[in-house]
Amino acid sequence: MIRIALDAMGGDFAPKTNVLGAMQAVKKYDDIEITLFGDENKIKEYLTDSTRINVVHTDKYFDMGEHDAVKAIRSKEPYSMILAMQACKEGKCDCTISAGPTQVVVVAGHMVLKKIKGMHRIALAPFIPTANGNKILLDSGANVELRPEHIAQLAYYATIMAKETLGVEKPKVGLINIGSEEGKGREVDKETYQVLKEDERINFVGNIEPKEMFFSDCDIFINDGFTCNILLKTLEGTAKYMGACLKKEIKSSFKSKIGALFMKKSLKRFKKVFDASEAGGAMLCGLTSLVIKAHGNSDEVAICNAIRQARTLVNSKLVERISQELGDNSEE
Hints:
The protein has two domains: about 1-120 and about 285-330, Isopropylmalate Dehydrogenase, CATH 3.40.718.10; about 120-280, Isopropylmalate Dehydrogenase (3-Layer(aba) Sandwich). The chain is about 45% helix and about 20% strand. The protein is built from twelve helices and eleven strands. A hairpin with a 2-residue loop joins strand 5 and strand 6 (about 135-140).
């Protein structure tokens, strides 16, 4: 049985969406068990079916506007996110899922679970949809700056991740940059290019311009957290804008509305392609236990998909595989 620790109080619409998402997931997958960490009284308002769902009560949880994550975690208060991670640290659960504040999830991961021995940095790695299937983007926000050797190690981590989750035998890695030619970008980008090029563990194919991402045959797109976070948010904004434009055009005339009725199924599929909730969440790479950061405004579908993603990652034994490559499961 796969045991999921879900921070029921994380996210803009908690605990409702987390509880509803958990109930959806246990109906879809008969090999999972979910523990909800949070305010039991609030959780029970929405928990109509507790089949393979347990509740650990705490009335402490992080506000989405939390500014001092380190101080809060060091206070030793029983925050719902911390209890979920501790359950994984103690071997009671296999993966933590939280839609709480990104900064807190990253800091808590560092302080509670800690990095795998040998990992220099951790990174946020969401799956993004493209014309050639889902791809991995990292680091999408855990580190504003990264040295070339850090990026190379994360590229290797993502290579194993792509093999296990995307089923790609020899994943291709592309460096997000302002131009495709060698020698483009900042000094750190030029140095990173050379480090990736010389690393025999990585199938590096060169620089990738953001405009080429949706049609590239790369499986992994990589750079520092500042670059990739801006890219990710631009992609999210563009998807929303395209949806708004399409909706406006459909409503612009009677003929367009009639045409939309005939294209209803196609339009639903179009919307699904750009729906962030379909991806689930971003994996926090490099920790001794799996952590998935769901979007703060996740609905129950997104939470259910984050649980699906957790199920896949636990089955892949990704952390164990990385730990074998880099050392044992403890930080130096």
